[in-house]
Structure to design on (559 residues):
């Protein structure tokens, strides 16, 4: 299995200046991305007078060409924007949906029928993509430049090609066995049996043709008509169950962002997204628990900081895995899970010292209610965008649509495909996140904008499945509680804990030398040689934008 952290690309775009209308020319902003070519596309859009939404759309499309590990047309995501003209935020869910022919037993049946990893490999693992429709409606609502201007750089990169760097061949080699099972991806990435090579020009004419249609027609062709019919036929020929109706009925959904006031500093508000993103609930819960445990009295490199992080995440992941999913499937209203009365009650389970109860399950609020790409932007008018998009695993389902040049996601694995059994991230669900026709699978993607005194200050997002959640939390703490600079906060060691498995994941080469030993002494199981999510962060320093590319990634901040 390839390194799981590669399944999401991350990019952050930050642009701020005075409160003046944008004009063409140099920008005070910054673009941070998991790929330097996509970063350059974003900078040019900003220099052309584009705003944060314009830049996010153009960068996301460029990533679909230059970063096929995670950038995509065949996936989905979430976008969070802060509109400076209203001082309000809006969210967009363009997550994939489950095909109508699937249900909660679909993958169990496929297991019995002998399919190989049916929720991960091939078009049977793919949800109905949201990216083409999502990027279009985001642009319609918040963009300023012409649509064609935003798609053209991606089309050109596909048609004229780009020089292959070091990372793409490495990632392709890691996924070779799975990517070469089907002819379209095999021929695209392994021509004449050899992986595309560093230093060579990589031209993608089929993808360029799709982008040309997107540029001139908008996304409708993707969901209706001949193109949609060809996709459905190809998907079904290789074991998928899409229908024309699944595509025609796909719709991005507007979301009301969640505002979390930092319980330790009321000048800071975190704006994040509600389910099916788990970011908003996770941040609200963990910050409440950490504050209750006195996080501000702990040192960043102390075992006590690690302990309270672990115990806060233990409770938050138990709720995530049991209660969260597509809001239409949820039995509880999100508000009940972040209600201070409920959180106070739940915080009673937090141990004042030592290790908490590994059997801690989800809470029960009384009232019953009802490998990824990240882009963060702050623009010259004070607007902000955080956009995370994904095809789930690195190179998604490994299945490329024949003749179309793009890979499909394997997002169906984010549902509880086999309740009680771990998915590819080791997450074990037993709650409301079952496969259900037309619904969206739960996500750890957490595009986040932090307001200070009501204005965008930090833009955060990451790739790396559930480790996105622990990463955003820790970078935020390092920056706000520990006073580290942005780059230091992004580079600083992190841990991850998700309850099941009952083990703490550390990154050995970065973590404090004695931490592993001290955690073991407290009774924690430790996996010391683990990977962390890749975060790209942006910050307004009062005068200009600063960017910090995660040193764990190949990201780049510019200009
Ligand atoms: N595909 C990973 C996530 O959305 O959490």
């Amino acid at each position: 299995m390839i390194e799981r952290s590669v399944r999401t690309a991350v990019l952050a775009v930050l642009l701020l200046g005075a409160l003046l209308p944008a004009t063409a020319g140099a920008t005070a902003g910054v673009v941070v991305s998991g790929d330097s070519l996509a970063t350059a596309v974003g900078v040019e859009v900003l220099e052309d007078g584009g705003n944060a939404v314009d830049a996010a759309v153009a960068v996301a499309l460029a990533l679909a060409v230059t970063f096929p590990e995670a950038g995509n047309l065949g996936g989905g995501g979430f976008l969070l924007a802060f509109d400076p003209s209203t001082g309000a935020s809006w969210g967009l869910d363009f997550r994939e949906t489950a095909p109508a022919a699937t249900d909660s037993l679909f993958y169990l049946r496929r297991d019995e029928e002998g399919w190989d990893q049916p929720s991960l490999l091939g078009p049977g693992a793919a949800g109905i993509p949201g990216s083409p429709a999502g990027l279009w409606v985001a642009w319609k609502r918040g963009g300023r430049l012409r649509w064609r201007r935003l798609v053209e750089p991606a089309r050109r990169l596909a048609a004229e090609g780009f020089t292959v760097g070091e990372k793409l061949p490495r990632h392709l080699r890691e996924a070779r066995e799975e990517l070469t099972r089907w002819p379209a991806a095999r021929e695209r990435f392994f021509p004449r049996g050899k992986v595309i090579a560093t230093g060579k020009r990589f031209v993608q004419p089929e993808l360029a043709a799709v982008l040309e249609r997107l540029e001139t027609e908008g996304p409708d062709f993707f969901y209706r008509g001949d193109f949609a019919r060809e996709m459905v036929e190809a998907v079904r020929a290789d074991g998928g169950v899409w229908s024309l109706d699944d595509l025609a009925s796909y719709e991005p959904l507007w979301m009301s962002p969640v505002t979390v006031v930092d319980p330790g500093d009321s000048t800071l508000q975190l704006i994040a997204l509600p389910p099916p993103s788990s970011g908003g609930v996770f941040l609200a819960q963990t910050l409440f628990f950490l504050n209750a445990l006195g996080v501000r009295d702990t040192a960043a490199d102390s075992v006590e900081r690690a302990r309270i992080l672990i115990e806060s995440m233990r409770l938050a992941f138990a709720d995530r895995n049991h209660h969260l999913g597509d809001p239409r499937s949820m039995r509880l209203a999100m508000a009940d899970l972040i209600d201070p009365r409920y959180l106070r009650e739940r915080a009673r389970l937090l141990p004042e010292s030592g290790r908490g109860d590994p059997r801690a399950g989800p809470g029960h609020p009384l009232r019953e209610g009802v490998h990824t790409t990240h882009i963060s932007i702050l623009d010259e008018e004070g607007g902000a965008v955080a956009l995370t998009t994904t095809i789930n695993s690195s190179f998604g389902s490994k299945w490329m649509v024949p003749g179309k040049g793009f890979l499909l996601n394997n997002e169906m694995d984010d549902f509880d495909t086999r309740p009680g059994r771990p998915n590819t991230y080791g997450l074990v669900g037993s709650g409301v996140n079952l496969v259900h026709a037309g619904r969206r699978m739960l996500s750890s993607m957490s595009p986040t904008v932090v307001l200070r005194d009501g204005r965008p200050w930090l833009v955060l997002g990451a790739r790396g499945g559930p480790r996105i959640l622990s990463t955003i939390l820790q970078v935020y703490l390092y920056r706000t509680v520990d006073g580290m600079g942005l780059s230091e906060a992004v580079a600083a060691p992190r841990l991850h804990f998700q309850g099941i498995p009952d083990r703490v994941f550390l990154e050995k080469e970065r973590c404090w030398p004695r931490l592993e030993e001290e955690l073991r002494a407290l009774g924690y199981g430790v996996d010391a040689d683990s990977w962390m999510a890749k975060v790209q962060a942006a910050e307004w320093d009062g005068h200009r934008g600063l960017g910090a590319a995660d040193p764990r990634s190949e990201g780049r901040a510019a200009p």
The pocket of glycine is lined by residues 372, 390, 392, 411, 414, 443-445, 465 (CB under 6 Å). The two ends are 35 Å apart (CA to CA).
